[in-house]
UniProtKB/TrEMBL annotation:
This is Zinc-binding dehydrogenase. It comes from the Bacteria. InterPro entries: ADH-like_C, ADH-like_N, GroES-like_sf, NAD(P)-bd_dom_sf, Zn_alcohol_dh. Its cofactor is Zn(2+). Residues 187-319 form the Alcohol dehydrogenase-like C-terminal domain. Residues 21-144 form the Alcohol dehydrogenase-like N-terminal domain. Keywords: Oxidoreductase. Transmembrane segments: none annotated. Gene3D superfamilies: Medium-chain alcohol dehydrogenases, catalytic domain, NAD(P)-binding Rossmann-like Domain.
Length: 357
């Protein structure tokens, strides 16, 4: 629980309200720690305490509120990072990645319970996954039947979907192409695996950390670039006959990485931006490569997935071993150790930690 900005997260008993209409209670199985919560804990990404962080998870439905359909008590569910209401301005335009249930909430995130001192507690991202029990919007869960462990299933709601969706749905990588992935944390490593699966011939992994570059190779990267060694744009161009790649997918966050990703593509290439820096950050792009040279610059929110269509397919890819969580899942922590998770993420120790209540 984020009780005060800039302070360690706390594990506190919350008096959970019964689920409001359209909401369900889910007993948490496992929630991966997401790098965006390093920003959230510092107050750099818009969350207002007291709030339970953790925007994607997995678990078993414990209680169903009024006006809920499509999910029942006892269902094992993936709790997705984005709702899909099917009816809002965005959903009817085929863009559930921008669903109003998440992004158009003038009153802020829903209140899900109260602290011992009487203050109301909200669920960040509509979910609040860093807790033993989640109060989630029923339009944000997908029932699944699988023997995958919770620690893996939990990664589907944000990391897997954003990485795979950025390649399949946003960039639409075609076989035989060249792809650069800028940043080899959780998101980058899923993205690399997706680029391989899409049939890319060359996958260039860019990261200053040697361990992450090694993991990138384990995930199928054909080339690695250390941006600390020389200009990463020049290095990527040198690997691709001087042209640059057809697709550059930025999975790092810093605004410089987003500019570099643009410049790593050849003229008329495709750039996908997925990373987040503190709210209000500005990306500066040189004008001619952006305005004249035909590049497509695309944003990716949760991989633009349609959760009921894409998550069952991604579950299958995991079950078949065609994508592999092993290089990405560094360790699990008990919920009480959440500040260790936060410190690991902040200090880039390992790749992903998963919290088990
Ligand atoms: Zn996330
Ligand atoms: Zn919607």
């Amino acid at each position: 629980m984020l009780v005060e900005l800039g302070k360690p997260l706390e594990v506190i008993d919350v008096a959970l309200a019964p689920p409001a209409p359209g909401r369900i209670l889910v007993r948490t199985g496992a929630t991966p720690f997401c790098a965006t919560d390093v920003l959230n804990a510092q107050g750099l990404f818009g969350k207002v305490p007291p709030t339970i962080l953790g925007h994607a998870s997995t678990g078993v439905v414990e209680e169903v509120g009024p006006e809920v359909s499509g999910v029942a008590v006892g269902d094992r569910v993936v709790v997705h990072g984005t709702a899909e209401c099917g009816r809002c301005f965005y959903c009817v335009r085929g863009r559930p990645d921008q669903c109003s249930v998440i992004f158009d909430r003038p009153a802020g995130p829903p209140v899900v319970g109260t602290l011992p001192d009487g203050r109301s507690v909200t669920a960040a991202g509509n979910v609040g996954g860093y807790a033993a029990m989640m109060s989630a919007d029923a339009r944000q869960v997908v029932p699944v039947t699988t023997s995958l462990p919770d620690a893996v299933l939990g990664m589907l709601g944000c990391g897997v979907t954003t990485g795979l969706g950025s390649v399949f749905n946003v960039a639409r990588v075609v076989p035989g192409s060249d792809v650069a992935v800028v940043g080899c944390g959780q998101l980058g490593l899923w993205t690399i695996q997706a680029a391989v699966l899409a049939g890319a011939s060359r996958v260039v992994a860019v990261d200053p950390d040697v361990t992450r570059r090694e993991l990138a190779v384990r995930c199928g990267a054909t080339d690695v670039v250390d941006p600390a060694e020389a200009d990463p744009v020049e290095q990527v161009r040198a690997l691709t006959g001087g042209y640059g790649v057809s697709y550059a997918i930025e999975t790092a966050g810093p605004t410089d990485a987003q500019r570099d990703a643009l410049l790593m593509t050849h003229r008329a290439g495709t750039v996908v931006l997925t990373g987040c820096a503190p709210t209000g950050s500005q990306v500066v792009f040189p004008q001619v490569p952006l305005a004249i040279q035909g590049r497509a610059v695309l944003s990716s929110q949760n991989g633009n997935v349609r959760m009921h269509h894409d998550i069952p397919r991604y579950v299958r890819l995991l079950e078949e071993g065609r994508i592999d969580p092993t290089p990405i899942l560094t360790r699990t922590y008990k919920l009480e150790q959440i500040n260790d998770s936060l410190a690991d993420s902040r200090d880039l120790r390992g790749v992903t930690t998963v919290l088990i209540p």
